[in-house]
Input
Amino acid sequence: MLARTPSRSPGPLARALDRFLINRAAVFGICLAVPVLAMILTYPLWWSFKPNDIDLLAMNSGPSLKHWFGTDGVGRDVFARVMEGGRISLLVAVASTLLSAVIGFLFGAISALSGRWADAVGMRFVDLVMTLPPVIFLLVLASIAGTGIWPTVLVISLLSWPLLARMVRARLLELRERDFVVAARGMGAGLPHLLFRHGLPNSIDILVVYATLQIANAILLEAGLSFLGLGIAPPAASWGNMLNAARSTAVLEQYPWQWLFPGGALILAVLAINFIGDGLRDAFDPRAELN
Output
């Protein structure tokens, strides 16, 4: 008789995916984020108005079949500006997250793998950055860098990397004592080899979860800076500067669609990304195997 071949147990990625898919909030976040992202990326193909098109005959018009989200004080289509603001917010969030992830990973990995003195100096610098008041630090950086997309990306990146550096360092401090890393050092492996051959693959779960949650945080930071006039400057559309333009009492009371839709888009985007990030964090948590 033929011997029955034992069934292979699912790998760690398959188990992580299973844990993610049974998380109802994470699946809800995916179902919410995908159509919103598709609308933001494709709206110029099917929407007839551009973000800065001015129609003086339709100033402060309410939502209608022609203007789904109404118009603002100079006749610009609010739906087009909300979609364009989503594009800019996502661009700033993704770019700043990638930059802060690179800085944080390199700083944390080099501190963990370079030796005692490099670790001590690097972590004291991280402690110094983390003790600075984040709001004041953010405003000072923004006032120095100026307004615009790329200055905003730089400001958010410089504020966000220290937490990731500490998490990567904690992971790689344990990794550097393992036999295969010690053997690689003994064979003459340099720091670049240790960083990208051993450090990066063993930190990928931290980077994925950090990136997902940081995108939501970066969207909020960009909106806050733009609301204060230190982020994306008009006439470019941003959820933050749209809320800033609608902050007067007359607009709040008489034309609520000018702040309701950008504010709602901001809340939905951050909520969906946070749900996805929480699901990824639980999916990659090794302690979830015990539950």
Summary: Residues 34-40+77-284 form a domain with the MetI-like fold fold (CATH 1.10.3720.10). The longest helix spans residues 78-113. The chain is about 70% helix and 0% strand.
